[in-house]
Amino acid sequence: MSAALATATPSPARRIIGGLVRTRELGIILALAALVGYTAAGNPRFLSGQSIRDILLNTAILAVMAAGQAVVVITRNIDLSVGSVLGLSAFAVATMMSANPGLPMIVAILAGLAIGGVAGLINGVLVRFGRVPALVVTLGTLYIFRGITYSWAGGQQVNADELPRHFLTFANDSFLGLLPWLVLIALIVVGGVSLVMRNYRVGRELYAMGSSPEAAELAGIRVARNLLGVFILSGALAGLAGVLFAARFGTVDAAAGTGLELNVVAAVVVGGVAVFGGSGTVWGAGLGALLLTVIGSALAVLDINQFWQQAIVGALIILAICADRLVAVRIARALRKRDSHV
Amino acid sequence: MTSPSPALEVREVTKSFGAVAAVQGVSFSLYGGEAHALVGENGAGKSTIVKMLAGVYRPDTGALAVGGAPADFGGPADAKSAGIAVIYQEPTLFPDLSVAENISMGNQPLTRLRQIDRRAMHANATRLFARLGVHIDPDRPARGLSIADQQLVEIAKALSSDARILIMDEPTAALSAVEVERLFSVTRALRDEGAAIMFISHRFEEITALCERVTIMRDGRHVCTELVADLSVDDMIRRMVGRDLSALFPKQDAVVGETVLEVEGLGREGVFRDISFTVRAGEIVALAGLVGAGRSEVMQAVFGVDRYDTGSVRFLGKPLRAGSPRAAMAAGMALVPEDRRQQGLIMDLSVERNVTLPRSRALARLGLLLGGSERREARSWTRQLQTKLGRLSDPVGTLSGGNQQKVVLAKWLATDPKLLIVDEPTRGIDVGTKAEVHRLMSSLAARGLAVVMVSSELPEVLGMADRIFVLREGHIVAELTRAEATEESVMYAAMGQQVAA
Question: What does the alpha-carbon distance between residue A20 and residue A331 come to, in Å, rounded to a whole number?
Fold first, then answer.
């Protein structure tokens, strides 16, 4: 090998840009630290055990859904139906548990995963074989799944007193007294999906599909199979989130999780997953979920108007997307400069 | 060294897209231990053949056989598992993934836990780059690589799959001479190990340097398959382009008038440089060259669709504002774009609406477009151009390609331009309508219109143009008068060969 024939020595500018992309998660961590520090300085109770516990419990459900959504967005798709899937799963599982109080928790979880998985399969089939953009398909199924839940519930709701005790205490119980089950499940989901996306062939294929769909087809990647898998995963995790939702809040009606899909997408985008697919990490999306939850809690603690919470989330999303665009534009410019051989 | 049974056999394959037959009854065989060149003009069907071998297209009729066994590829994965690796003309990298990942995609080395072994993957990329004698950081993302480096990554990708059949569609287009030589020595080594190579290139010196056998295609048909040693470069060119010029080009003599367009030193970073030419009234000037030479880009910059970095455009003696198609139109320029379906017409709109679109302002009364004036205008123009159509209110998408092109022409001629720029005016049009479009352009020039034609079809260029500028890789490499231009001289210039003595 002759180093003298160097054809591509990365310029410092591109190194910096590359670094910027890689440290996106670092940015979120810094933002989190700053926010927590500022809030705790104003109100030390923000760092009390109970407060932290609440934040983590609130994050858990969002993070589980964000993990699935992140995978979907990495493949250059989107799943807007997750809020409705959560509602369907929560209502179905709550109904099941109230009718059969003897069922163990694991059955409830499996039922939630199965309901969500079927819903996700429907999305995947429509996207892949119907050749309809995911945005349209899942916008449609958002209403369809919600409609099914409403007509099933018929105005009824499942109350906490109808549910078995072990189901309700699951949310607050801790595994070996260390971590609440909810948080543990979220950590396992985010960690597991992150690992698959980072270290396994199928994960890298999903990044490839989002990075260049045409090239993925040409590279012989089994795009159809992978895409179905992705939507099933997102649906199943939304279904799981439904079970956690029912366990945590106890009272479930047909409107459970309405509008939640936008929080999930926000967490994913703020967490550094590029909306055009191909880049970002699942654990980044998990951090995004944490950041959004902390913002909500911090504003409440600091006694700031709820309106600002929404505005700040909006600003964060725009900031995240601007960062993506900025990086893309700068890389494109660097590329053009380099290629000016004529 | 030729083994008796072919590694890959292509038997009488045909592929059509709509009414256009891209490949018609082509047969040839690739043998292990042999490099086989596939040559032909733009649009001869080479890339379609490549895509069939890659499993992207299925042949309509005919068959492929790999190692003697019939092969029916349902997708690229099938072709890959049959041992076929393809280097596409357009790089097909994943911009967000690292170079090493791009190379290993699909057959990444795994650890015992079936995780990706990043260290082995990195080492693999380093080894392949060493073999190619290039220095690319395997850990950097593919985004931002120069075209040449992307091409090298593609080559490394193909090498990493240990394919028995290697298809290379213009792999050298963006490479420097040193890199080409490296690629060739690697390719020769693979060939000597028994791989079958198919090599597509527009550079004849590469074909004679690398290949033993050559298949020549023209207009989707198989012309011949011969040993390279038996053919001279002139023979190959003649067989590539050698169609009779029987399709008559009814070129009328026109009085050449004043200069209409002056382009001076036009340049755009990375696309074209130092483009200077003039066009006078009554003259047809052709920009010839291979696809990707920058012809359309030059004219789009002149018209203001694209920006340019250096140089100037003067129109009718006055400087023309850059980057403003509106200003160009107001000054009297018209551009008939290459892709009429996407850029030239609004397919769902009626014929009359399409024709009058650029003039809707002039035709409107008090800002309202009333049917009458539109219809009159449209009727007069479609009649002049002998457009075959049912009713003026039919969507333009229902017309044939040739008649659609006439509607585009009508649309721009209705603006009464001084300069007409036509980009590939007869692409995808049948022979009869082609001649009509040519007759029309010729008569327009005779009436004093200045015409700039971008065309990849040599007979059209030779038959229609008064002067020909040949572009190669963003430069004007030759200016030929009608008398000087022959198929060979234009082709030689376009491919970067010396004009044959």
Answer: 12
Find the DSSP H helices in B453-486. 458-464
Over residues A101-118, the mean pLDDT reads 95
Among chain A, residues having any CB pair with chain B shorter than 8 Å are 1-3, 5-10, 14, 18, 199-201, 204-205, 207-208, 210-212, 214-222, 274, 278-279, 331, 334-342
Which pLDDT score is estimated for A170?
85
On whether the CB atoms of residues B357 and B473 are closer than 8 A, the answer is no
CB < 8 Å to A336, chain B: 269-270
* List of chain A residues whose C-beta atoms are within 8 Å of the C-beta of residue B85: none
Chain B positions touching A220 (Cβ under 8 A) are 55, 75-81, 106
Report in angstroms the alpha-carbon separations of B284 from B292, B460, B464.
Answer: 22, 11, 7
Cβ within 8 Å, pair B96-A211: yes
Cβ-based neighbours of B26, under 8 Å, separated by 6 or more: B10, B12, B13, B14, B45, B49, B62, B217, B220, B221, B222
- List, for residues A276-326, the tens digit of each pLDDT value: 889 899 999 999 999 999 988 888 888 888 788 788 888 887 887 787 677
What's the pLDDT score for residue A306? 77
Longest dimension (CA), chain B: 80
Test B135 with A331 for CB contact under 8 angstroms.
Answer: no
**Nearest residue, CB atoms, A336 vs list B55, B105, B270:** B270
Mean pLDDT of the residues in chain A:
86
**HSE on the CB side for B170, CA within 13 Å?**
19
Q: Using CA atoms, how far apart are residues B32 and A227, in angstroms rounded to an integer?
A: 38
What is residue A340's predicted lDDT score, i.e. its pLDDT? 47
User: How far apart are the C-alpha atoms of B494 and A59, rounded to whole Å?
Assistant: 63
Q: Do A217 and B76 touch (CB under 8 A)?
A: yes
Where chain B has pLDDT below 70, the residues are: 1-4, 18-20, 42-43, 174, 242-251, 360-371, 428-432, 497-501
pTM exceeds 0.90 for this model: no
Min CA distance, A211 vs chain B (Å)? 5
Residue B202 confidence (pLDDT): 75
d(CA A211, CA A26): 23
- Structure confidence at residue A22 (pLDDT): 52
pLDDT for residue B249: 65
Tokens 């899942």: give the residue. A138
A7 → chain B, closest CA residue: B135
- pLDDT, one tens digit per residue, over A57-84 is 999 999 999 999 999 999 999 999 999 9
> How much is the pLDDT for B323?
85
B96/A278 CB distance under 8 A: yes
Residue A335 pLDDT grade (very low, low, confident, very high; cuts 50, 70, 90): low
CB atoms within 10 A of CB A307: 9
Q: Which residues in chain B have Cβ-Cβ distances shorter than 8 Å to A207?
A: 94, 96-97
B181–chain A nearest CA distance, Å: 13
How do residues B21-62 score in pLDDT, each as one tens digit? 788 889 999 999 999 999 887 667 888 899 999 998 999 999
